[in-house]
Design goal:
Structural class: alpha/beta
Bound molecules: ligand BES, manganese (II) ion, zinc ion
Largest sheet: 8 strands, mixed
CATH superfamily of the largest domain: Zn peptidases
CATH topology of the largest domain: Aminopeptidase
Number of strands: 17
Shape: elongated
Radius of gyration: 24 Å
Number of domains: 2
Length: 481
């Protein structure tokens, strides 16, 4: 059941929420105290504090109040609002809260209202559909109200759409690979297109890959007995006038490594190797629900990467749909093979700006951990737009360089390129240099989310799929609109 989210200009105590959350900045008093001064007294006594994420609970004027430390006003931003909201949600949940009303602090922007909504909706996410119902599980929050002096209906409603999309991406991520097959992911795209006005979807199977001579994508898919899916989503917003945005996602629903088999420890996490594709699909849903004035085409390559008697072999040479020949030197470098044909297809469908997003390399986990995703891009303007979208969305990306010397490393011995560079240097960048040729002359940004996709540890999405990428991609579409 999803959380109902709304905005009001009523003061918190006038609504029907059972818990009222009030932020306290360091060195500031409570903005609206109750008549007998209970809230201010709680701050004065030190039981409630402005210290970031400090929590205090009291009952006054017939309601339950949650005083939430917001830290210093000058440090407070949308990300801190998400983290504070997650902390408040945790306590509210323990208290059995059904309707929570957050009082928006004075003199903050719409981004803070959005952050409070996102933090709450994301923190309220649970993935328990495979578990028997527990009698002692709290029912959980049913409604969130943001109370503000000014009308914040629009930012609150938009944030609710984006956060719900991010939770939907987490559902896809968290589903096991036996249930979330490539076809099941395609079905999700079709269902979304059915549900959301202005969004259309098509799902192509193995025959299409072979017909279109997508030899790189098809090589990955050939090892698996389940049908691959090339998922295409399109959205043409009213008033769209800018360049056509192309979103490309890697959706390897399970990556065993193929014949270059991965070690079995942690292999189960490779159900998350479809995270880029999930982000693209759900971001498209959000972009269309928000009616953004942009034109977007999305291409998601979904397949398993399995070892079998019909799997690709190390040493095989395949031809991508643009004619590039690729030597497969490690069947575990499958993501770039899938993306190569998807990037070409997105260009064929008219993309004039490209963003691909993928759990592409272990090297990016080593380099950036779970905080930043890697960004590698052509075109400084385009790179900057993506970087700024990362900051604005709270899904930051850190740019790594491309260089002709790196490009040199991906040249093949027997074919145009190799999918795996023998000298394991700059693994995330050589992967990007491989992809770059398939983007050709279209400004292109590659987001490597292998470190930020799951178990990221952020308070509002601590474990399992994070839904990373949904907010970033929506923000990119906004910036282009
Ligand atoms: N899906 C993996 C990347 C990955 C690894 C994501 C660990 C998250 C955690 C990708 O398909 C892969 O296996 N990449 C290889 C490439 C190498 C063989 C050139 C890698 O990074 O080791
Ligand atoms: Mn792999
Ligand atoms: Zn992979």
């Amino acid at each position: 059941m999803s959380l109902r989210v709304s905005a009001t200009t009523q003061t918190p105590a006038d609504g029907d929420a059972d818990t009222l959350a009030i932020g306290v900045f360091e060195g500031e008093s409570v903005a609206h105290d109750v008549a007998d001064g209970t809230l201010g007294a709680l701050v004065d006594s030190g039981e409630a504090k402005g210290r970031f994420r400090h929590l205090a609970v009291t009952h006054a004027a017939g309601a339950r109040w949650l005083l939430v430390g917001l830290g210093r006003r000058e440090d407070f931003d949308a990300e801190r609002a998400r983290l504070a909201a997650a902390a408040a949600h945790g306590r509210a949940r323990e208290l059995g809260t059904r309707t929570l009303c957050w009082e928006l602090p004075h003199h903050v922007g719409d981004d803070i209202a959005a952050g409070l909504v996102e933090g709450t909706v994301l923190a309220a996410y649970r993935f328990d559909r495979y578990k028997a119902a527990q009698a002692d599980e709290p029912v959980g929050l049913e409604a969130l109200v943001v109370s503000a002096h000014d009308d914040v209906t629009a930012p609150v409603a938009e944030a609710a759409v984006v956060a719900a999309a991010q939770n939907a991406a987490r559902d896809l991520q968290n589903m096991p690979a036996n249930d979330l097959t490539p076809v099941a992911l395609g079905d999700r795209a079709l269902a979304l297109a059915d549900e959301v006005a202005g969004l259309t979807a098509q799902v192509h199977g193995r025959d299409f890959l072979l017909e279109r001579r997508m030899g790189a994508f098809a090589a990955v898919a050939q090892g698996s007995d389940v049908e691959p899916a090339l998922i295409v989503l399109r959205y043409h917003g009213t008033g769209a006038g800018g360049p056509v945005l192309g979103l490309v996602g890697k959706a390897v629903t399970f990556d065993t490594g193929g014949i270059s088999l991965k070690p079995s420890a942690k292999m189960h996490d490779m159900k998350f190797d479809m995270s880029g594709g999930a982000a693209v699909i759900e971001a498209m849903g959000a972009i269309a629900r928000l009616d953004l004035p942009v034109e977007v085409v999305a291409v998601v390559g979904a397949t398993e990467n399995m070892p079998s008697g019909h799997a690709m072999r190390p040493g095989d040479i395949v031809t991508a749909s643009d004619g590039t020949t690729i030597e497969i030197n490690n069947t575990d470098a499958e993501g770039r093979l899938v993306l190569a044909d998807c990037l070409v297809h997105a260009r064929d469908l008219g993309a004039e700006r490209l963003v691909d997003i993928a759990t592409l390399t272990g090297a990016i986990v080593t380099a950036l951990g779970s905080t930043y995703a890697g960004l590698m891009a052509t075109g400084n303007e385009w790179a900057q737009l993506v970087e700024e979208a990362g900051v604005a969305s709270g899904e930051p990306v850190w740019r790594l360089p491309l260089h002709p010397e790196y490009a040199e490393l991906v040249k093949g011995r027997y074919a145009d390129v190799t999918n795996a560079v023998e000298a394991r240097k700059a693994g995330s960048i050589t992967a990007a240099e491989f992809l770059k040729r398939f983007a050709a002359d279209v400004p292109w940004a590659h987001v490597d989310m292998a470190g930020t996709g799951w178990d990221g540890g952020r308070a509002y999405a601590p474990n399992g799929g994070t839904g990373f990428g949904v907010r970033l991609l929506v923000q990119i579409a906004r910036a282009l609109a």
